[in-house]
Design goal:
The complex is a heterodimer of chains A (about 400) and B (about 250). Chain A is α/β, with parallel strands linked by helices. Chain A contains 13 helices and 5 strands. About 0% of the residues of chain A have low confidence. Chain B starts with a strand and ends in a 6-residue tail after the last helix. Classes of the chains: A alpha/beta (about 400), B alpha/beta (about 250). At the A-B interface, α9 of A face α2 and α3 of B.
Chain lengths: ~400, ~250
């Protein structure tokens, strides 16, 4: 029927006007005549005006008649559904035996399934205070989950130290390869450019005083103490943190984590621990590599724009930096490694059971990773200042 | 009278405030093939997660023989959980491991067997479910039906006392579903294990079930209990009749 009506619309057959003619009989008994083509795409009588008519006439019984009904589709059924509901609510006896049997069948089918109480989730408009309260409760329960996850990871790390944690060494090597050497290309590019940018910014200022040579100090210190660790950590949050979250998330969806638990294998030991270890080992190494790449970037600017010789630049860099500077960066990057791995694994393990929640988990992992990196960096920098490290 | 293997007392299952099923009382006897049936969304799989100890009941107790699953220590509970074999709906094979490694993992963890023996056992379990020659394949490289069978092989890895099946025949063609049913029957006969099957596949539940409960999503509790064939003959409940006869007797 629907296809038929669609065809009619396409070939442009004229649609007969829909009409709902109400004829009042005796003792508030009404009869209604349905006329014309009741099709989607045709204009049908307004249900509200029909309701008003029925109310004005104080009608108690209504029978429908369809002798002059033309073509019809869901539009008619929808109209009748609303009419039926209105009649039911206002104690009007509705007689539909005059309708086409197919329409009666559809109506019956639509009302066969009772409305489930909790099925239609209503959107509740709540006040600011209520929303604030709900948000606080949510924050509380989220922090609780996070803390218990961190606790689980600590216990698991203890088991590792006692040699009781169960995970496959091959997994560890694979993850290490993926998050270490696998990230070299992008780390090279980004840190080279960051070194370049630092050198440019510094060169503009230092040239005024004729102190171009100190670009080497600026780039060296900047990379070793700050940018090397920070940039690699942010790259890894976007690359590996998201990967961890989506791997663990899809394992959650696929019930693989349930399968581990029912076999009594701790998913924290088996899945989270190797990922944490891999990132904590590889991130400082990447950071060191990024430091040198950044210095190389600075060197390129120094040699090409500031008329410094390569040897001059390198000697200046060497005199500006001591091992402590590298050490501060490396300590930072180990901390960042823990944070990136934690946020990635946490979002993955808390992932829901649908494929869209895997995407949410990956997003949450990256956001939480980057925010915690920057916050931790600020704290560590202040601490270094205080203890004069 | 057969021994009771699992007893469920006044169990209420809920996600936060949303109650899924309440006042569930039933017993699963040793050596039975126990069917949990009901329409979509009535909480069959959720009941399975409760029985497995993956989800804590909102109210009520679950007893494994004499042990109350949520009153004993975590170590004890883990031990009980480990004696259950589970075949998940999608197989839930660990995707980074080959089929043989999937089966070997629990064996490595809980037995003192040598690597060679473990490999032998893993190959043997795969042979039991008809997957000879696929031992070194990864789960993504095999078909859905094979994944289910591999999932069964893993469930059998530790020779469990109870085997749980979550919709074993979902997504299988009728012949493969029949083969899986036969496999379940032969395993039951040879191992004498208790088997719990969550399903709504009629041919399969009539073929293998020796006891069953019927969960209803409207009244939110179980409305019939007994062997599926008896329920079809004797149950007076219209919902159960409609379900078991696909609405033909209406």
């Amino acid at each position: 029927m629907a296809r038929f009506s669609a065809c009619c619309l396409l070939v442009g057959l004229a649609l007969k006007k829909c009409q709902f003619k109400l004829l009042m009989g005796e003792k508030n008994i009404a009869e209604a005549e349905l006329q014309g083509d009741w099709l989607i795409g045709n204009v049908v009588p307004d249900i509200e005006s029909v309701k008003q008519q029925l109310q004005q006439q104080n009608c108690t019984q209504l029978s429908l008649n369809s002798e002059q009904l033309g073509r019809w589709d869901s539009r008619l059924v929808l109209f009748l559904c609303e009419l039926e509901r209105y009649c039911h609510n206002n104690n009007i006896a509705l007689n539909m035996t005059g309708l086409p049997t197919a329409a009666q069948g559809l109506l019956k089918q639509a009302s066969a399934f009772p409305v489930r109480e909790s099925g239609n989730k209503e959107k509740q408009e709540s006040s600011f205070v209520a929303r604030l309260g709900l948000a606080t409760l949510l924050f509380y329960s989220e922090s609780q989950k996070m803390l218990s996850f961190v606790g689980d990871v600590c216990l698991s790390a203890l088991r590792l130290l006692r040699g009781k944690a169960c995970f496959r060494q091959r997994d560890l090597w694979l993850i290490m390869q993926e998050c270490g050497p696998g990230a070299l290309a992008i780390v090279t590019l980004i840190s080279l450019l960051v070194g370049l940018i630092l050198a440019f910014v510094g060169a503009m200022q230092l040239k005024i005083f004729g102190a171009q040579i100190y670009v080497a100090n600026l780039v060296g210190l900047g990379m070793a103490r700050e940018m090397g660790a920070m940039m690699t950590a942010i790259i890894m949050a976007g690359r590996t943190g998201a990967a961890f979250a989506s791997q663990l998330g899809s394992m959650q969806v696929n019930e693989e984590i349930d399968a581990l638990e029912t076999l009594g294998i701790s998913p924290i030991d088996f899945l989270v621990l190797p990922r944490m270890l891999a990132l904590i080992i590889m991130l400082p190494l990447l950071c060191l590599y990024a430091d040198f790449m950044g210095i190389l970037g600075g060197l390129m600017v120094g040699v090409s724009l500031l008329d410094l010789s390569v040897v001059e630049y390198l000697i200046q860099t060497k005199s500006a930096l001591d091992l402590n500077d590298f050490l501060t960066g490396l300590i930072k990057s180990s901390v960042f490694g823990v944070l990136v791995a934690l946020s990635g694994c946490l979002s993955g393990m808390q992932c829901g059971r649908s494929s869209s929640s895997v995407g949410d988990a990956a997003t949450a992992a990256v956001v939480a990773g980057i925010v915690s990196i920057v916050v931790a960096d600020a704290i560590l920098t202040v601490v270094y200042q205080i203890i004069d490290f | 009278m057969k021994d009771v293997h699992i007893a469920v007392n006044d169990l209420t299952m809920a996600y936060d405030d949303f109650v899924i099923q309440q006042q569930l009382n039933f017993k699963i006897h040793k050596g039975d093939i126990f069917i949990v049936m009901g329409g979509n969304g009535c909480g069959k799989s959720t009941l399975l997660r409760h029985l497995l100890g993956l989800k804590k009941p909102a109210k009520g107790e679950i007893y494994y023989q004499d042990a109350n699953l949520w009153a004993i220590s975590e170590v004890e509970r883990k031990k009980i959980m480990r004696s259950n074999g589970v075949m998940y709906q999608s197989g839930a094979l660990w995707s980074s491991l080959t089929l043989a490694e999937n089966i070997a993992l629990p064996l490595k963890e809980y037995t003192d067997l040598s690597d060679h023996e473990i490999q032998g056992l893993a190959y043997f379990k795969l042979a039991l479910v008809g997957l000879v020659g696929f031992e070194e394949y990864y789960p993504s490289e095999i078909s859905g039906g094979m994944k289910k069978r591999a999932g069964l092989a893993r469930a059998l890895a530790l020779d469990p006392e109870i085997l749980f099946f979550d919709e074993p025949s979902a997504g299988l063609d009728p012949v493969s579903a029949k083969l899986l049913d036969d496999l379940i029957l032969s395993i039951q006969a040879s191992l004498g294990a208790t088997i719990v099957v969550v399903t709504h596949d009629l041919p399969s539940l009539f073929a293998i079930g020796t006891d069953a409960i019927f969960l209803d999503s409207m009244s939110k509790t179980l409305i019939a209990q007994g062997a599926p064939n008896d329920l079809l003959k004797n149950s007076s409940n219209p919902i159960v009749q409609q379900f078991l006869s696909r609405g033909i007797n209406e």
